[in-house]
Amino acid sequence: MSEKRRVTRTWTASYPDPISITAGARLDLTGKTDDWGGHIWLWAIAPDGREGWVPDTLPDDEGRARRDYSARELTCTEGDILLALDRTHGWTLCRSTSGAEGWVPDANLIPA
Predict the structure, then answer these.
(1) Are residues 84 and 65 in the same domain?
(2) Is there a single domain that holds both residue 93 and residue 60?
(3) Which residue range(s) make up the domain with 52?
(4) Listed residue (107, 106, 73) closest to 92, CA to CA
(5) Residues 41 and 60 placed together within one structural domain of the fold
(6) For 52, phi and psi rounded to 5 degrees?
(7) Which of 4, 7, 15, 62 is most buried, by CB atoms within 10 Å?
(8) Strands annotated E in the chain
(9) pLDDT at 49 (0 to 100)
(10) CB burial class (10 A; 0-12, 13-18, 19+) of residue 35?
(11) 29 and 50 belong to one structural domain
(12) Which residues of the chain have pLDDT under 70?
């Protein structure tokens, strides 16, 4: 992807220690779901005990992660220019000029 995005609204990360999982690891899906902007999110528990929202496309039919995933959000300020790395479920994975990476809601970003 690697496109530049400008932050239109400041965003503060919601969780200090977000869920993170490696491809093939088993997720404990709790059954709790959320429809966020037309995208379905599942509440999951990783093998290390951390909990959080994961996109409904992450687990396979056996509840294993299809790919590496971290729910780390990126705290950013209006006007920041970020590099977009990936996008899913209304969020864009971004890298700041300092090298920090995390997810930012699409609604807070425009092409730079």
Answers:
(1) no
(2) no
(3) 20-69
(4) 106
(5) yes
(6) 170, 180
(7) 7
(8) 3-7, 20-21, 28-36, 39-45, 51-55, 69-70, 81-88, 91-95, 101-105, 109-111
(9) 97
(10) exposed
(11) yes
(12) 1
CATH of the domain at 93: 2.30.30.40
62 plus 51 within the same structural domain: yes
What is the residue whose two structure tokens read 């992807």?
1
What pLDDT is stored for residue 2 in this prediction? 81
Question: Are residues 77 and 94 part of one domain?
Answer: yes
Q: How far apart are CA 92 and CA 48, in angstroms?
A: 25
Mean pLDDT taken over the chain: 97
Q: Residue 7 burial by CB count (10 A; 0-12/13-18/19+): exposed, middle or buried? A: buried
Considering the entire predicted model, what is its pTM?
Answer: 0.94
Total structural domains within the chain: 2
Short-list 13, 51, 2, CA closest to 29: 51
So what's the pLDDT on residue 50? Answer: 97
110's tokens? 């425009």
